[in-house]
Amino acid sequence: MEIIYKSNVLNENWNNDIEKFDYFLLAVGTDLRAYKSIFVAEQNKIEVDNVVLFNFHERTESIKKRQSIGSENYKNLSYKTKIYNCSLKNPSAALKELDIDIKKDSQIAVDISFFTKPFFFTLLNWLKTVCEIENVTIFYTEPKNYVFNKGLYSEYHSSVGPVSIEEIASFSGNDANKNDSLLIIMLGFDGDLSAELDESVAPKKTILVNGFPSYSPNFKDISLISNEKVVNKGGNKLVFSRSTNPFDTYNLLTSIKDKTEYKDLFINIAPIGTKPMALGVCLFALHNPEIRIIYPVPEKFEDVTSHDSWCTWYYEISLNLNS
Amino acid sequence: MENTYKNPFSEYNANVMDNNMILEYWSNPFSFVEFGLTEKEVFSDPNPIVFMGGRGTGKTMFLRYCSYDVQKKLLSRDHTDTTNKLLNGAGFYIRIDGPILRSFEGFGVSDEKWLVIFTHYFELYIARAYLAYFHSLEKDTKIDVKFTKKFFEDCSALLTGSITSLPDLSEMISFVDSKITEINLFRSQIPLKNIEFESEFIYNSQYLIFGIADVFKKNILEVPEDFKFVLMIDEYENFLELQQRLINTLLKFVKPGITFRLGMRLEGFRTYDTISTDDFIKEGRDYRNIIFEEYLIKSSGYSKYLRDIANKRLSKIECFVQNNLTDIADFLGEKEDLVLEAIEIVGIKHEKIFSHYSIDNKDDKKLLTCIENPLLQVLNCLWFKRGKTSKEINSAMKAYLIGAADPNLSKYKMDYVDKYKLSLMFIIATIYKKDKSYYSFNTFSYLSSGIVGHFIELCRRCFQYAEFENKKTLIESGNIPKHLQSNASRDLAETELQQIRRIEKFGNKLYFFALNLGDTFKRYHRDILIRYPETNQFSVDKTLLTTSTKDAFEAAQRWSIIQRKQKTQQQSIGKKKNDIFILNRVFAPIFQFSYRTRGGFSEEYNSSEITALMEKEGIEFRLEKTRVKQITKNNSQTELGF
Predict the structure, then answer these.
(1) What is the ipTM of this complex?
(2) Cβ separation of B188 and A176 shorter than 8 Å?
């Protein structure tokens, strides 16, 4: 079933119907992009009762170093703010220990710009399962550009050093009555990862999703070149989904799941593409708990993978399919 | 005809091949390589066997080929009459992926509890494989197997305690699925909230794995006396320590009619312990260990095996069959042509070689020059530096070239053909600041370093580059130019080197280890006096390594960054015997070292030196340690500067 969605670019006058939030959750980041949505809310006197800032100790050093470009500007917020110090590596422990009492009917906003994908996946599932929240407003501020250390067509890595392919906490899915797997990879620029994922899951069929249209016209091709090994592998299928629209990804995944040929397969999805695509994957997985989400979890995420900010998007999402 | 083209090597991973593809691409390693056991023993040996090897050595292909599903297809493809016949056993290919295995730890649940849950899961997982097999036998009209009432009753009793609750196999499978679902649900919820795992039945180790097999053998009349359940567990290195202890216990206490085959990386045992605290498994006593890579590297049949693998793939591509291009050597060439390569690099600038050897005398230079073969000219310079006169050398060279007699001919020929030819090529590449090329089937066989997957990947890249450059030529003539082959080998080397950093544990240490070893060996290959030709191995006494270094060192072995030579060797003449390791030859194109391993001299390292090589700073240590020193006027040592 496809969903009807609400997705828009936030302007400086807060063109959003929701003007009061009980909780606004966001992550401390390495530049102003992390706080763009909450600052627009503040400027427009939007009522926010509690701001919860996840402060990941893995980022402490680089945030200190980047003070001059606003990495610590959250300190100027006028809202009641709780700084929650925790580890990026263990979202489960962080959320289990989070000492806030979010009521079922709370109005929640989450800015995912500086959460890692595994973290915000588990966070949204926690809001759904533990707090029983039905609807959430998601904000996401696009980066202006990505960092390609070794040139545009060579290498981009969102992580450094060792990676371990893991199930994202709370997204194990259920393979009980399935003999074979389907792997859907949201392609990013990091080509080694897609081959690793393919090998780790050993699926019967692999579908590659390229972000198109992409943020920038050449990103689509960079992604295909970087991922040539899996793209050229016999039997793999390449499809496209808009890189800026989570609901487009959601609908694509729905159409794949509904195909008869994939009905008996255990669906695995690896959201290594853009964050909006990952949000679409997350939403799809929340609505279809039998699918599994896997992710190449790095020992260390790169401190800085993007520059400056572009548009801030907001999306209204329902954590439950029937809400 | 172009429409029938497909890269013959695009299917590179046995994990993801379906059963038909496994059969299509299967090349029997037993036909080419001596493994220390027979093909029959793989199935019939009642003792567990462990197959070790790096990624891509063919373990998965091998285990999957032995599985019941593929064997059944094989019989039907070869029109063997399976009517009324049960095979003498059934091989079950078991692979639980790493992400699932790793989800059975943490989240505030104690190790003891996780062990109980995983044991339950593993019992159910194997039980399901058994039941699916029985179900396929039941449905197979060609095989006359009668599943008796007693069989169903006993199975039902094992699963639920009641002989009537699960009357048929479909119900049993659904029941097992529902129990696995309970575990999956728990795995999904435990990261979010602290809950206890609950289930009506929780199975102990061996209860279903041995129990169901026993019920089958006891209650089905058609089962032959020597029928075996062979559980082939792949990627054992992914099992967590606690999980390995559980399976090690099964290995130790195998029952008649059930046995195990484990596929794993080198050093893939995280532990040899069993569940019992005072017991462990031991090679020889509890299992046989076959190290794929070691047999493949040393075997003279390895290149024939690779050729068979490649040719099977080529013969599936219609346009190649039509053009009679079904031998991989048609595309890559059989062997490299070192003389031609040297001529292409040197061109007309022969003088440069003399200047590097500081040979100034015109008469000497005239006698030592060899226009038609620059390799010989370098050899002549080497001999000259070692004290032979230019006249003697010229005479030996002429004798070699025209087949005349000379007192030094035999030594000259041996030095050139058997000893130094490849080293001379490296010296030329060094003098002229060019990279040596890596091409030809023979070179690729060596570069793959006993890892079939590397060979397939080298070929895949070659075909991909050749298709991009000129698809028509590729299809019609088959020839893949050597620069494309060399690009492919270099690109693979770069990819493999970069991938090291991604290794889950010790990634950065292993990266520096490979980098420092590679740079060390590169240095030997640049020594224009060729004192230690083609040195690309080192010796170390692993028992003396500190715990953390040993763990990292074993990870290097597990990922085939380094490879142990099968027999211990003397580090050099007169020294004690130690384990000898080579840096995986797939890295050779980056560091410009030899693609083959000659033996002879090895670098010798102690524990602190190995530790140093795993650090970024190891580079400084390496320069100090290496026996080939920088060139200086006073000591007249003659290694070229970097």
Answers:
(1) 0.91
(2) no
